[in-house]
């Protein structure tokens, strides 16, 4: 087994090289490997070497998955059983494959299919709705459990939450209002916990794919480095203990999504989420995630999620045309033209050197 997080430094080298295809593959593998931490799993050196071969273009993602499968089949024949490593490696390769695909459908059926693809042959009941109620002892709750949805109400609750999100409009919402809503939707569907195991990893993959439909180039590194924090934030978003003055709060999850979508640098420490967190001053805090915890600047941009997506792309690609912008975010050229005019009127961007040979300049601070 490899040392914790050493894999991250090795895979980041591909991002530093500046080759878009390698960087995209590396980010997907970082997320895939990092997400195993939510269930206390670690991938093997063999998985890392396989990931490198895929990133470097030596093998396809299908070949990478087959290589991992064959590796563990051979070890099983020899009596070298490593169930936890096998689960981590197999599921990581499948996450990398799904994140690399350009297809997605926003529906409970898609979430089920993602779960099935991740855990088929690894966990019992892959892709199937759990037929019993569950509880889970949580470190962050001092051994207490979140109240998950009753197994009898799972399908109805899934349909309700997904239909509500489909009908929700982000138009006119500020960035922070949008982030808060995304956090609330994510925590809501996670609380349903429709599967017997593997709910958090399946949720993370689904949400990453969903966020990409907004046009975001999701910073997968945040999931890679903070997957356990993500799970603990989901726990705190769904836990109430009124006797002890503890109320469900999405604030921790909002900090996570601000790092993920807005490139913020909030200090995401798991100890901050514990019910009996003691700050550096020795003060015991139960509910608040104050400035000493977030340690990141709040976004002051007065723009929507759609506008933020354009700002981030323009920042990265100053010479991009409106036609290319439209293709990148899946909008019409007419809509993009309207959005860029609005951003210029707000003083967030300006056009330099004319239409033909010009470029965009971002005038606002995105961090």
From TrEMBL:
<dbReference type="InterPro" id="IPR003812">
    <property type="entry name" value="Fido"/>
</dbReference>
<dbReference type="InterPro" id="IPR036597">
    <property type="entry name" value="Fido-like_dom_sf"/>
</dbReference>
<dbReference type="InterPro" id="IPR033788">
    <property type="entry name" value="VbhA-like"/>
</dbReference>
<dbReference type="GO" id="GO:0051302">
    <property type="term" value="P:regulation of cell division"/>
</dbReference>
<protein>
    <recommendedName>
        <fullName>protein adenylyltransferase</fullName>
        <ecNumber>2.7.7.108</ecNumber>
    </recommendedName>
</protein>
<dbReference type="InterPro" id="IPR036388">
    <property type="entry name" value="WH-like_DNA-bd_sf"/>
</dbReference>
<keyword id="KW-0548">Nucleotidyltransferase</keyword>
<keyword id="KW-0808">Transferase</keyword>
<feature type="domain" description="Fido">
    <location>
        <begin position="106"/>
        <end position="258"/>
    </location>
</feature>
<dbReference type="Pfam" id="PF02661">
    <property type="entry name" value="Fic"/>
</dbReference>
<dbReference type="InterPro" id="IPR036390">
    <property type="entry name" value="WH_DNA-bd_sf"/>
</dbReference>
<keyword id="KW-0067">ATP-binding</keyword>
<dbReference type="GO" id="GO:0070733">
    <property type="term" value="F:AMPylase activity"/>
</dbReference>
<keyword id="KW-0547">Nucleotide-binding</keyword>
<dbReference type="GO" id="GO:0005524">
    <property type="term" value="F:ATP binding"/>
</dbReference>
<dbReference type="Pfam" id="PF13412">
    <property type="entry name" value="HTH_24"/>
</dbReference>
């Amino acid at each position: 087994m490899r040392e914790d997080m050493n894999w991250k430094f090795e895979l980041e080298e591909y991002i530093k090289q500046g080759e878009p295809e390698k960087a995209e593959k590396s980010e997907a593998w970082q997320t895939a490997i990092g997400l195993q931490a939510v269930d206390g799993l670690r991938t093997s050196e063999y998985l890392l070497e396989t990931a490198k071969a895929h990133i470097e273009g030596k093998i396809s993602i299908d070949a990478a998955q087959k290589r991992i499968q064959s590796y563990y089949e051979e070890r099983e024949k020899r009596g070298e059983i490593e169930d936890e490593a096998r689960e981590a490696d197999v599921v990581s390769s499948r996450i990398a494959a799904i994140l690399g695909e350009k297809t997605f459908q926003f529906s409970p059926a898609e979430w089920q299919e993602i779960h099935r693809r991740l855990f088929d042959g690894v966990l019992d009941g892959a892709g199937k709705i759990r037929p019993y109620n569950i509880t889970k002892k949580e470190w962050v709750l001092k051994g207490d459990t979140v109240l998950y949805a009753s197994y009898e109400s799972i399908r109805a609750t899934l349909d309700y939450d997904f239909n509500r999100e489909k009908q929700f409009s982000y138009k006119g919402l500020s960035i922070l209002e949008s982030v808060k809503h995304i956090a609330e939707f994510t925590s809501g569907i996670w609380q349903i916990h429709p599967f017997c195991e593997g709910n958090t990893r399946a949720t993370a993959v689904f949400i990453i794919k969903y966020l990409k439909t907004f046009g975001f180039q999701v910073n997968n590194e945040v999931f890679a480095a903070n997957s356990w924090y993500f799970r603990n934030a989901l726990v705190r978003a769904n836990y109430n203990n009124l006797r002890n003055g503890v109320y469900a709060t999405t604030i921790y999850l909002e900090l996570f999504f601000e790092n993920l979508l807005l490139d913020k640098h909030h200090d995401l420490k798991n100890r901050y989420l514990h019910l009996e967190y003691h700050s550096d001053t020795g003060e015991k805090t139960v509910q608040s995630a104050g400035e000493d915890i977030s340690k990141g600047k709040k976004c002051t941009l007065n723009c929507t999620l759609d506008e933020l997506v354009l700002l981030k792309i323009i920042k990265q690609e100053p010479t991009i045309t409106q036609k290319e912008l439209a293709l990148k975010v899946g909008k019409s050229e007419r809509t993009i033209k309207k959005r860029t005019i609005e951003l210029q009127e707000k003083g967030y961007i300006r056009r330099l050197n004319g239409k033909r040979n010009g470029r965009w300049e971002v005038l606002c601070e995105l961090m």
